[in-house]
Amino acid sequence: MQKVKKKILVKGCGVAGLTSAYMLAKAGAEITISAPADSPRGAASWYAGGMLAPYCERESAEARVETLGLQTMKWWSETLPDLVTHKGTLVVAPPRDSAELERFSRRTGGHRKIGADEIAKLEPDLAGRFSRGLFYETEAHIDPRKALLALKQKLKDMGATFVDIDADEAGFDFIVDATGFARIDQDHDMRGVRGEMLLVHNGDISFSRPIRLVHPRIPLYIVPRDNGIFMIGATMIESDDNRPITAHSMMDFLNAAYTIHPSFGEAEIVEIGVGVRPAYKDNFPRVKQEDNHIYVNGMHRHGYLISPEMARQVTEIVMG
């Protein structure tokens, strides 16, 4: 007798929903995904940096973020091998912030200290700009938008059905809710953390890897995309307000980019993005179960780094 497939409704088409849906489909479940028609565009993870940087994240996160992040880097590489770039992360600081660079070094592992010559060898367009840096050679990055669209296409190819929001939950064995900040009114342990980013076009330089600029107040980074596009991010503001970007944040981004290379002063601003990240008190995600409802949420700034582990937990619950 043929085994009946479990029917699963996944609500949400961000990185948490798509990774959960993909793992469940691989495990043999019949998947329906409920999300707006243009998803994953507009999800918080659409505006992410896509840095698979478990060592760098340890600077402001607990040890399990690093441990799980090292595992999930492998998952992304196996699942979307053509989209993961394995060229590490470069952390730099101007001379005035050398103490901050040393503090970053003490709080993180997986790196080596490098000087001006090696910085120039890694990133020729930074030659002569920084005398000291940290190189996290085994880290990687992924274009989050390409990754989300690729996962969505893989699910379609595997027979998953995509429906609009407010789908009828009747007839499903499990409902996996990965709707992020939309659940904040129902999950009172969760809060919103506002994040802002810029996409700019700068055809005068190229980078091979994410560049993090040590900053005394907020972490700032530049991540290369294709065709001269760079993502500059990202603020972490304790607020669930999704109004347009503030002038203060815009100045921080542009000043940081200019500090990394003056050519960013002539860059064209292509897009300004604002998203509210769901987060719990310890900034670590949760998988919660209430009868046949499973809630995966609270990704904070670790969506791409941690979501495959949360998806694995969801799959273990659903598939028994």
From TrEMBL:
GO terms (BP aspect): D-amino acid metabolic process
Gene3D superfamilies given in the database record: D-Amino Acid Oxidase, subunit A, domain 2, FAD/NAD(P)-binding domain
Keywords: FAD, Flavoprotein, Oxidoreductase
One Pfam family here: DAO
EC identifiers of the protein: 1.4.3.3
Keyword Ribosomal protein annotated: no
Cofactor: FAD
UniProt keyword Oxidoreductase, yes or no: yes
Catalytic activity as recorded in UniProt: a D-alpha-amino acid + O2 + H2O = a 2-oxocarboxylate + H2O2 + NH4(+)
Domain of life: Bacteria
Enzyme class: oxidoreductase
Domain FAD dependent oxidoreductase: 8-316
InterPro entries assigned to the protein according to its UniProt record, in alphabetical order: DAO, FAD-dep_OxRdtase, FAD/NAD-bd_sf
A molecular function GO annotation: FAD binding
Family per similarity comment: Belongs to the DAMOX/DASOX family.
Protein name, per record: D-amino-acid oxidase
Organism name: Bartonella choladocola
